[in-house]
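Quick one: structure for this chain?
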Amino acid sequence: MSRYIIRRVLLMIPILFGMSIIAFVVSRAIPVNPIEAAIGQQASDHPAIVAAYTKEWGLNKPLVVQYLTYMWNLLHGNLGISIYTQRPVLTDLKTFMPATIELATGAILISLLVSVPLGVLAAMRRGGWIDRIVRLVTLIGVAMPLFWLALLLITLFYVHWPIFPGPGRLGPTTIPPPRVTGLYTIDSILSGQWGTLWDALYHLALPCLCLSTWSMGLLTRITRAGMLSVLPQGYLQVARSKGASERHVIWRHAWRNATIPVITVAGLAYGDLLTGAILIETIFSWDGIGSYAYQSSINADFPAIMGVALLFGVIYLVVNLVVDILYAFVDPRVRSAMTVKQQ
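Got it. Here's what it folds into:
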């Protein structure tokens, strides 16, 4: 197992190299002058100011030299300085990423807690009214635009019926906990600020519910399909003949063998939630990496754009690695195949 993990990590290096090239080319292909976006229209009319900024950001050098300089800095942990925030891009990523992790983790947990029981129930009642309702609801969840749902939830549960708080991670009178991880829920527990913890969970509820609708519908359909492929198997009848209860048969035997596609889709869905929550973070005023990526794009902040692109690529690579490792714990066949490859 350890050799397999090391080999997979080493294979990430050429992938990250290719991603750095793509991110560099895309950031330079934006049809906006980054210097003008950084200093404004009036200052851009002064050639001396433009020349100073161009030299400072290295934009007066050939693209090959710019890329080699970027790679040299990247290997030393330097992602450059953001034109918009005037801070190191790495510092910005560390500042904004925990909020997105908190939001995406809450959304995927809601999705799993709801989709797995619904998918199993729909498979056990195949063709019945429960199955039809579940399929209809999941179809709506997959097809519904998240930005429209976010606006609808805010209008209903904040404006008309003030059940949930307004946008943001905390209320205006709540003091953030001392920063340890950047996740307000975790930091509140570590510092013992239980009022802040409740407020953070309260503000998480609505955006997490909104963000989880797509993954919830997808995971429910995958769970149902996986269970339908397992339920006719003969070993379940053998387990029943030995006196095993129906709950034991379903959750100990059937569900365990249907988890492989669920793990795959859940991992990819979590990666999508981490990298694709730009609209939701903007609507709910959530200071996460999605909001940072949006501000970087509209301000032609190419160092930040490249940093965000590389971060998103690393997220998908890590998620896929974790999913492959989980296969070995769930399916003994995968674990034995890894052992054979190591030998």
